[in-house]
Queue: 3 jobs
Job 1
Amino acid sequence: MILPRAALAAALLVLLAACSTDRPKPTPLEQYEPRIAGRQVWNARFGNVGPLIVPAAREGLFFVATADGDVLALQADNGAVRWRARIGAPVAAGVGSDGRFVSVVTRGNEVVTLDSGREVWRKRVPSAVVTPPLVAGERVFVMGVDRAVHAFDALDGRRLWTMQRPGEALTLAQPGLLAAFRDTLLVGQGARLVALDPLRGTVQWDLPMASPRGTNEVERLADLVGPPARVGDRVCARAFQSAVACVDAARAAVLWSRSTGGANAVGGDDERVYGADASDRLTAWSASSGDVVWNHEKFLYRSLSGGLAVGPAVVFGDSEGFVHFLASATGAQQLRLPTDGSAVLGTPVLSGATLLVVTKNGGLYAFRPN
């Protein structure tokens, strides 16, 4: 029996979770001498966050949704609640925001958009969604697990266009790539990065980030993982269990692609791109050439989160709730801060000087490195 695309994605998510239980024990953490200062500035717990619900940061606020259907805007500097809304349905993917409009997607495939905490519209899409919506230019862009991209008017929910291209039936049940670049919409379509005209949904260019090989759909699965790491015109991303690659989005050219395993998003700055492979071996690649700058195995099997570059450090969370600050030039441990002991999910989010991580137990922890 051939399963529908959404069912295949759900089955893959279960398969990946089952495989993770067979991993070797996490490598014990080494003693280290802190090289930078940093502290927790606030923490909160508002309910079940859920493994796929990614927060957003805009205009000095963090936007967070719970799996139970609460959407909150929090002051980034102190965690104070600016507003809180109840959408009346479990949330599957979120949050996208431009600072005014906030969009999430329910498990019933409804796109719900709020204006300063007040619901203004909700519209259904035909497939499940696990990628956070993108809100930009008074439009809301949503990508389903079937890779179809839908554009809505942020003001009234009017559907503007839908773009769907043929591709592999199996898709990845974790947040994909959906981002803005100047006046272009970037979307992941399998292992390819596609630029769309946000007004009409037409393809402007299409670049391969990886060349997946395999004898079956699971082995060929190489969906691009979000969020991407963007610095200027350079956009870098991971293709699931296949490669890490960078493109020059202004010239529509692939700069480099390096074969490597791994499932989580990469981080990046002016000089390097950072990521962990399937065994949590950390690597830093030259952002310009793709050459390996450094790698180490100090965090093997610690289920590292996606990476985020913050000044002279790159930050990863792990399965025991620790947040690791590593020197971006060498990978040396600079600082280690605890949370609630449960796994750090997704990728850390930055607003100004405040860094937010979300834990499996539903904790929100804000840190300020110095």
Job 2
Amino acid sequence: MKAATRFIARPLSLVLLSAALGGCSLFGSSSGPKPAALEAQVGSGNARQLWQTRIDGVQFPLSVATAGQSFVVAGNDGVVQALSAADGAVLWRGEAGAKLVAGVGSDGRFAAVVTRDNELVVLDAGKPAWRKPLSSTVSTAPLVAGERVFVLTVDRQVMAFDAADGRRLWDLRRPGDPLTLSQPGVIGAFKDTLVVGQGARLAGVDPLRGTLRWEANVATPRGTNEVERLADLVGPMARVGDTLCARAFQSAVGCVNAERGATLWSRNTGGTRGVGADAQQVYGVDGSDRITAWKLGNGDTVWSAEQLLNRRLSAPLAVGKQLLVGDYEGYVHLLAADTGKTLARLPTDGSPVMAAPVLLGDTVLVATRNGGLFALRPE
């Protein structure tokens, strides 16, 4: 299957496949640049696989949720499961009743997904609770928090629903850009504030009323036409204390102080996947799969690594002193966080890693396009 970056033109609502943005997808194109050869003499290092299981497959932008001691996942077929992080045992299982385009968000009890029919479906401990048709297309997994379900549409409208009964509580509409990106955006929580991506800005929203508290630019859109000025924030977002970091599509990586709602720094750089971070650095993958580390405090470049060029990498995950990224052949690469040098490489099932690896405690979960779920422990 070939994937291409999509963007939505408003108000005509045309879905375009952009040749100009070729290679921006997770899979890339078979006619693109040749992927770098795997480095020789790289073993599994101190990482090991704890368990593995399988779901139907993942051909939509999956976001793996973590809640308590469980991972919450969903497959193409709409089956949603909570899996024990310790051994992969199924804690509960439910069905959305249709194939999915986005998911999954969960607080452990409630889980939310969006179907291809553009319905928001919420399960309560695996049992169908309610479903609502949505008026706008969704590519981002819903957020479930504070007994509410928050939905971010591709035109960056934000909607809030009561998690128990599906009542629509509020919606926030901002002045729209001519083009919006049909790619997972940014939605998360910081203390008592809902944080969403609104074009090239991070916005802090009152989750009870849907009113804007603050907004801060991650990028300043530039260009001579609407395509060149497209700079929507793409997920995942990274949080370290009061600092939130995100990538603006093909434009920049930047960090914001969420307590003050102020931009800390922004660096011009291409790329289409979200970022990872730890207490010292922010990590991102550009359009050629060059990996760069920036200082968390001021955005200065620490290192760049080119050994995985054109391997269609996932967004990165920082774990301890290591950085994890998945590639199009299902390998999980472990890099030294201080230098970018390769430490280890672990195989999965040979199909592309479909989402940023997710950490819960000391366990990392990796999901592949063929539906493989692999729990790893870097040590």
Job 3
Amino acid sequence: MGQDHHHRTDWKHDGVRVIPGDQLDPTTAGQTTGMNRATAINFARVGAQKIWAGTVHIHANAKTGAHHHGDLESVIYVVKGKARMRWGNNLEFTAEAGPGDFIFVPPYVPHQEINASSDETLECVLVRSGQEPVVVNLDIEPVEKPENVPWVDPIHKHPGHADPNSKR
């Protein structure tokens, strides 16, 4: 029965896809100074239904506010630099990750992302379990205030830009 499916599907065009690192799609909406982001895998580019993946370069000292991503799961792989995560109902837990480390953020976990370096760009690969950039901002006083440099990436919009998916 697997054979029949094999004959009906054009695996040459609907099979494995390699997306070269120099052919990622830079998100045109609101690129931020000192920050680059690019989509590698999404529905529009390769027909992905359940995952999104791309790269994020975050400048030194950048931080998000407290938020969660609804029912999305997120995986962050640190390529270069130092990331600090804070999480919990009062962001009371903390962990750091460096090059080669993976960070997993489960659904609904209140958290804050931080570039823990004052002079080095944080370069990451971000994978999430859906196409919709869900962000629910939380009214928690973060231990590390994100005033100086906001963290902006495909999911965390600039605080000055209204996001229809965001709830305050």
